[in-house]
Structures are given as C-alpha cells and as structure tokens.
Amino acid sequence: MQRIRNIGVLTSGGDAPGMNAAIRAVVRTAISQGIKVKGILRGYRGLIEDDVKEMDSYSVCDIINRGGTILGTARSSRFMTDEGRRDAYEIYKKNNLEALVIIGGDGSYRGALEFQKLGAKVICIPGSIDLDIASTEYTIGFDTATNTVIDAIDKIRDTSTSHERCSIIEVMGRNAGHIALWSGISTGAEEIIIPEKKVENFMDSVATRMMIAKKKGKKHYIIINAEGVGNSIELAKFIEEKTNIETRATILGYVQRGGSPSCRDRMFASIMGAKAVETIEEGRFNRVMALQNGHFVDIDLEEAVHMQKGIEEDYFRISKELIR
After folding, report:
1. pTM
2. Which of 110, 239, 246, 274 could disulfide-pair with 29, CB 3.0 to 4.6 Å?
3. How far is CA 60 from CA 20, 88, 132, in A?
C-alpha cells in the first residue's frame, strides 16, 4: 500500500472547547511522521470554496488552551447536496489530499459518510458539547461545557437561596439531556427535566412536587431544564402562578460553548487527534475515533452513524433517588 503523504483537517458543526487540542495533535503527529497537513477553514463550506492553507508545527503553537477552533466552522447547505459534495471532492483532489480528518458531531459524521462514497478517505473525531454521539462515551467539549454549567448553577443557587425563590436554568443539548443530567446531579438540583424522559403535563408534575417540598419546609429550588424539552420562561411563569413561589428563568446559551478547555478535554482531544493520524498511517480509513470501555478505539463510520444513543438509565435513576 502506498504511504499517505498529504492529509487535510477541518472542524465542522458547533464549536467545542478542545477542538484546538485535536487540531494541534493531528498536525504535529502527522508532521512527525513526514506527512504534510493542510487546514480547511470553515468546515465543509471552506472545502467547497477551496479555503485551504498549509499548516506546520508553528501553525498550532499556543492554541491548546484556547476555546473554539482556529480553523473556524460553518454550516453548509451546499455540502448537503450531491453537486456540493462533488465540488468539494474536486477541491480535495486539487489539493492532493489523500485523507481528511473531520472533527465534529453527528451531522459532520453524516456528511463524511456521504463524502467518502465519492472516493475520499476520511477519519472522524467526535467534537460535540452535547455528548450525543452514540459510538463513543466521550465527545470533545462536553467536560468543559458541563463544568461551565456547574459553575453558573452554583452561583445562581447562592441568590436563589438568599431570596427563597425557584431558579430554572436552561442548558444546551438539542434533543439530548446529558448536560442537564450530569450538571443536575453534580449541583444537587431539585429537578432535572430532559427530553428522553419528558412526560405529559410535565409542568404540572414539577409544580406539584414543588408544593409538596414547600409544605415540608423547602425554601429554594433549582430546576435544570434541557433546551429540547420546552420554554423555560413559560415554565417559570407557570410555576410562579401555580405555587406562588417567586420563580426566575436563566438561559445559559452559548456561554456553554466557550472558554478554555478542561484538562480532560485537552488530554482526550490530543489523544484522539494523534490516534486519528496513526489510523491513517496503518491504512484504515472511513473510521471514527471513540472512547469505549475506557479504551480509545476506531470503528466503522457507517456503523457509527447508524448507532442510537439514549440517556444513561442508571444515572437518571440515581438522580431521582438523590432528590428528596
């Protein structure tokens, strides 16, 4: 088999703290093995538009501690079309790329699956603050995002306690409740509402449990609401009207995406980036990097795309036991 000499790297979808660590690891591992690296700016859109630059070891100096992605990222509706992907493949060939490392989430994986059908060789690295990629126990950015949420909740609890009020904190995750569940358990929240376990008339259920707790002497409440469940402002109004407990909603929003990555995100992103290049060197393509049972592995891209991920049932059960 002919040795790979030129590869590309891009970040796609939502940015996540630790993406820069992965980029750095890809670039420096490749260069150490005599492989040239080109960075594609703004994800799949940049690939279509030939927004490509040469990278060397100095290109990735002093980025491991930075949030976001130095390569930039963007959504590309053109890449979702056959014509757009064909245009991207022409740029792939024009730049003499023999493999492409794609750092992103589930949508990026699906794009990679279609792109490899044209003849491109791809390796995917899971980058998502939502932890919503079924093939892996870890995604780049989740640890940092959850710690950002925990810090915010701890601060909100201080004022919630002082004013004897209910505070609803809405966290990100699209249709996945992992950020809500992990941060809720970690901050001792009185209620955790996630899409995977949403029940009918959930607002009534929450208000009823709060009234019971109030009769027992409870004076403040923290409710974690995953964004895929419902409107936190409407929920706050409903609870205040139903319980006569002063209630405020805080939507944390994009603050969860930013910030300097945690040790775990820097470490694991670096390992995955290095192992992605090692996988290319070993001649295995159309694979995704994953953490499974405590080990870093690579699995088939198509298999990974079709996996389904649910909530950790044990974690959810425990969260209910801890709320008293």
Report:
1. 0.94
2. 274
3. 8, 25, 28
Task: Tell me what percent of the residues of the chain surpass a pLDDT of 70.
Answer: 99
For residue 152, give the amino acid letter.
A
Q: Are 228 and 173 in contact (CB under 8 A)?
A: yes
The H-or-E segment that residue 247 falls in is strand 247-251
Rounded Cα distance between 262 and 265, Å, is 5
| pLDDT, tens digit, 9 for 90 and up, residues 287-316 | 999 999 999 999 999 999 999 899 999 999
Q: pLDDT of 15-38, one tens digit each? A: 999 999 999 999 999 999 999 999
Question: What is the amino acid identity at position 190?
Answer: E
All residues at 6 or more sequence positions from 34 whose CB lies less than 8 Å from its CB, including other chains:
5
Nearest by Cα to 69 from 60, 82, 77: 60
Structure tokens at 168: 């609803």
Q: Residue 217 in 3-state DSSP?
A: coil
Query: Taking Cα atoms as reference points, which of 264, 318, 255, 252 lies closest to residue 291?
Result: 264
Q: Rounded to 10 degrees, what is the CA torsion of 247, 250, 251, 257?
A: -150
Of 275, 14, 277, the residue nearest 121 (C-alpha): 277
Q: What is the mean pLDDT of each run of 10 residues along the chain (324 residues)?
A: 91 97 98 97 97 96 97 93 97 98 96 97 98 96 98 95 94 94 96 89 87 85 92 94 94 96 98 98 97 97 94 93 81
Residue 8's DSSP bridge partners are: 38, 100
Active site residues: 130
- Listed in sequence order, the DSSP H helices in the chain are 19-32, 43-48, 82-94, 106-116, 142-163, 178-187, 202-215, 232-243, 263-281, 301-305, 313-322
Q: What angle do CA 244, 249, 250 make, to 5 degrees?
A: 155
